[in-house]
Amino acid sequence: MKRLSDATLAQAGAPVLTPAYDRTTLRTGVVHFGPGAFHRAHQAFYFDRMLAGRPDFGVCAVSLRTPDVRDALAPQDGLYTLAEKEADPTYRVIGSIREVLVAPEDPEAVFARLASPDVRFVTSTVTEKGYCLTTAGDLDLDHPDVRRDLQRPQAPASLPGWIVEALRRRRAAGLAPFAAISCDNLSDNGVKLRRAVLQLAEARGEADLARWIEAEAAFPCSMVDSITPATDEALRAQVDAALGLHDAWPVQRERFTQWVLEDRLGADAQAFADAGVTVARAVAPFERAKLRLLNGAHSTLAYVGLGLGYETVFEAMGDPRLARFVERMMREDVAPTLDAPELDVPAYIGQVLARFRNPAIVHRLSQIAWDGSQKLRFRLLETASEALAAGRPADRLAVGVAAWIRFVMRQSAAGVPIVDPLAPLLVETAQAAGPAVDRFLALDGVFPPALAADPRFRAAVAGAYEALANDPASALAA
Ligand code: CS2
C-alpha cells in the first residue's frame, strides 16, 4: 500500500475529505509545542479550516522530547487522517502541519521559527505537568527542567523556557511578541502560563525583558474540548481501508469539538471565529465548567471504574450505580460552584453524559488515569475547596480522590508502573507505613495545604477510601 503524502493525496478514497487549499502556498504563522494526538485532532483541525481563506496559518509543530511524531509524519509531508468516531464516521486528511521539529535535536531551528516575523501565535498542548507549577500556581524553581533552563537558556527543556528565550530574541530583533495560547486543561491556563513566563524571566535576571513581556505579550486563556482516545490498531486499519493509502499515525475523536478563546487575538480574531472557534471576552466560566464537570467526572469514572474492573468510559457508564453517581456529583456538587451565565449548565451536563455514552468511542479509563497528581487539582480539588468554603459537603467529590489513592496503592502493590511525573514519590508514599489517606494528603505537590488540613475533607476522603474497599456500592450511594 502506498504511503499518504502530497504526491499521493489525490488518490485518497472518495469518502475521505482532503485539504481544499494549495499546500504549496502556505506560510507558517503558528508554532505549536506538543503535537500529540490531542493537538492533531483539535487545534490543527481548526487551523486546517482556516487555511482555505488564510494561507498564513500554517503550523510548525515542535516535539519537546521524542522524535516519534516527526518520524511518522515527515514521510507524509505532515499529512495525517482525522477520524470522527460516530455511528456515521468521517475521515479527513489534515494539511495544516507543515513540518515537525524535535526541539533537542536542533534548538536553533526552533528559535528560527519562533523569531520569524510571520509567526503570530504559539500554541501548546504539553499537558498539566508541562507548565512546571507549584500547587499555588507559581513557577516551581526547583523543577529539574526549570533549573536546566536557568543554566542553559539557549537550549530550553520547559515550555516557559522556550517562550522566554524566544521572546527575548524577538525583542532584541525589534519584533512584536507572538501571542502564547495555552491549550491545556488547567484553570486560567493563560494566566498561569503568563505568570510562569514572567517568573522565569525574573529568575534569569532579566527584569527588563519581564516588563516588556508583561506590557506587550498576550497570553489568551482558552478552553479546549474534544474526547480523543489514543490511536489504536483498529483505527489504523479503518483509516488505511478508507484512504486506500497507508497513514502511519492517524488520530481519532468524537465529532463534538469546542475551542473557546479569549479575545486577545488582535486582527486575527475573525479568522479564528470563521473557523468555528468561540472568541469570548471571558473564558474562565467555560473553562471551569468543562474542567469541573467533564474532566472531574472523567477522572472519577476512571479511578472508581478501574477499581470495579471496567476498561472504558462507555463500560463504566453502563454501570447504573456509577452513572448515577457522576451525574449527581455534577448536578449537586459541581454545578453550584459554577458562575456561568452564558452556559445552560443542566443542558451542558446532559450533553457531557451523552458524549460519555457514545458507543463508537473506545476511551480507555487507564488513559484518563495518567498524571492524576497533576490533574486532580483542576478537576476535583478546587471544586472541593470552594464547596467547603461555601458550607456545602465535599463527600462525593472526595470519592474520586479516594479512588485515586486506591489506584496508586493497587498499582504499586502489583509493581505496575504508574504514568505520572511524580511516580517515584507516589510509589514511596504508597509503600510507607501508617494510614494511607494521611500519607497521601500530606503530598503538597498534589493537595493544596489548606484543603489537606480541612477536617471535613480529610474525613470525607478517609470515609470513601474505606467504603471503596469494603463496599463500593455504599461509596456510590453517598
Ligand atoms: C481526559 C481528557 O485523559 C483525560 O484526562 O479527561 O483528555 C478529556 O477527554 C478531554 O479533556 C476532553 O476534552
Give short descriptive properties of this protein.
four-stranded mixed sheet, binds D-mannonic acid, globular, Rossmann fold, five-stranded parallel sheet, 478 residues, N-(1-d-carboxylethyl)-l-norvaline Dehydrogenase, domain 2, alpha/beta
Briefly say what this structure is.
With 478 residues, the chain is of the alpha/beta class. The chain is 49% helix and 11% strand.
Walk me through this protein's architecture.
- This protein has 478 residues and is of the alpha/beta class.
- The chain has two domains: 9-280, NAD(P)-binding Rossmann-like Domain (Rossmann fold, 3-Layer(aba) Sandwich); 284-476, Orthogonal Bundle (N-(1-d-carboxylethyl)-l-norvaline Dehydrogenase, domain 2).
- 49% of the residues lie in helices and 11% in strands.
- It has 22 helices and twelve strands.
- Strands 6-3-2-7-8 form a five-stranded parallel sheet, with helices on both faces. Strands 1-5-4-10 form a four-stranded mixed sheet, sandwiched between helices.
- Strand 4 (80-84) and strand 5 form a beta hairpin.
- The radius of gyration is 22 Å and the shape is globular.
- It starts with 15 loop residues before the first strand and ends with a helix.
- It binds D-mannonic acid (CS2).
- Residues 185, 225-227, 294-295, 298, 367-368, 375 line the site of D-mannonic acid.
